[in-house]
Amino acid sequence: MSETIGFLLNDTARMFRRAYNARTRDSGITALQSRVLSYLARYPGIRQGPLAELIEVEPITLSRMIDRLEESSLVERRADPTDRRAWQLHLTASAEPLLDTLRETARDVVAEATDGLSDVERDELTRLVERVRANLSRRICQKDQKETA
């Protein structure tokens, strides 16, 4: 039986998450929490709504996750100076060493997953998956534009 590209990508992503979660279990950080921390490193001060859209979870799910990360002193909410009803999210100083460890773990999982591939094959795989993602992202954006028109 030949698997479809969608099935293969989805199944591979699930296996990546499982391998990553197994390696980060002792840290208490899940793959989704790690994504939140990574996005906060890229977009310091982002508000919860836009962050929920980026990681594709419901705002209430993100809010609970931020509560847990805040309780762990990894994230802090700061009042948004432009909107007193909103909060901006920031990493704390104690999150930085953990983020470095999580990035190293992610590199290890990728190295395991791409074992046996040459550098050229790894680069080609990355390029092709990025193109697939861009194609789907563009279609989603076009769909959103049609719905608002």
TrEMBL record:
InterPro entries: HTH_MarR-typ, MarR/SlyA-like, Tscrpt_reg_MarR-type_CS, WH-like_DNA-bd_sf, WH_DNA-bd_sf. GO terms for biological process: response to stress. Residues 2-134 form the HTH marR-type domain. It holds the Pfam family MarR. Gene3D superfamilies: Winged helix-like DNA-binding domain superfamily/Winged helix DNA-binding domain. GO terms for molecular function: DNA binding; DNA-binding transcription factor activity. Keywords: DNA-binding, Transcription, Transcription regulation. SUPFAM superfamilies: Winged helix' DNA-binding domain (SSF46785). This is Transcriptional regulator. It comes from Sphingopyxis macrogoltabida.
